[in-house]
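Key result, reporting period 2: structure in, sequence out.
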């Protein structure tokens, strides 16, 4: 489980958060590296690895600048 949010890291900048919560289609997101499957379950992005496939990463196609990345991850 990975939860992501971005906020400006510059002192004095607006603290308006921009959540990175994709819709169920994962439109605007791409898988890089291996061939893991990613789905949206509730408000969570869930990735499931595939045996024999290298590490996989789900990335947004959007470009962001000055930000703080916070997330929780659960590894079984």
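The corresponding designed sequence is given below.
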């Amino acid at each position: 489980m990975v939860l992501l949010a971005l906020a400006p890291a510059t002192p004095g900048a607006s603290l308006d958060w921009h959540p990175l919560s994709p819709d169920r289609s994962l439109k605007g997101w791409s898988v890089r590296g291996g061939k893991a499957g990613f789905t949206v379950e509730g408000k969570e992005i869930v990735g499931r690895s595939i045996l024999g496939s290298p590490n996989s990463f789900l990335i947004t196609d959007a470009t962001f600048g000055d930000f703080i990345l916070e997330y929780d991850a659960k590894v079984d």
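The beta strands are 5-7, 18-19, 29-33, 37-41, 44-48, 56-60, 68-70. The mean pLDDT is 78. This case is discussed further under Risks and Mitigation.
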